[in-house]
Amino acid sequence: MSQAGYSAVTGGAVALSAATAKSILGVKAHANSGVQIKGFSVGFDGVTASAVPVLVELCYSTFGANSPGTNSTSVTPAQTYGRVLTAGFTAGKTWTAEPTTLTVLKEFLLTPNGGLIDFQYPLGTEPDSALGEGFVLRCTAPATVNVRATMDVERI
User: Fold this and answer.
1) Residue 34 needs a FRET pair 20 to 30 A away by CA distance; which of 14, 82, 92, 134 works?
2) Domain tally for the chain?
3) In sequence order, what are the beta bridge partners of 79?
4) Termini Cα distance of the chain
């Protein structure tokens, strides 16, 4: 089956406050489709070599409250491959009130001193969402730092 792939990006630096969890990027499927996360990237602009690592979490979200565009800035996904289709999902960045309900699927520590990860799920192991639900990247930094991120998804 032919798939349509999309990329959602922060499109600029998202400021993290010290010791405060912040949802930095997320995607939410429409009521008649789901999304499958293929991979993501996260990078920081810190310059202090001794800085304490940032907790990065990939979360599943029901978006019972604060869907993309509500208490966040809307992001327009870009299609990266496949038949040209309407995205079938919405995206947002830099939430001021956290979306609900978040379930952590993957977590790791990453240095804010120019730290970067570009993760791709192995074929056949990619998480997918229920109709009308999606995924969020959330970061908790011990000190103030900026982050940029990308989520690669397919509409299913």
Assistant:
1) 14
2) 1
3) 6
4) 10
